[in-house]
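The methods section describes the discrete structure representation at length, but only in general terms. An entry of this sort, consisting of the sequence and the corresponding backbone structure tokens, reads as follows.
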Amino acid sequence: MDATRALHPKERIYTFWVNEAAFRRNAGFRMDFLLLSPALAPRLREAQVDAGHRGRDKPSDHAPVWIRLAP
């Protein structure tokens, strides 16, 4: 299961922008995924792309993707 898509089924989700201009236009690609096994999927609580990291000085072209699971 795609963790981010499961919690945000209708949102445009990007994790990669080719340059700063594309980032400002929010014209990106989704290249980074966190996949969960069927056994782990019920524990999924949050999933986000931290696009704020992409807006920093000398950023990576990818933004971190993270999830939070219930214990």
Notes: The helical segments are 3-7, 20-25. The first helix runs from residue 3 to 7. Residues 3-69 form one domain.
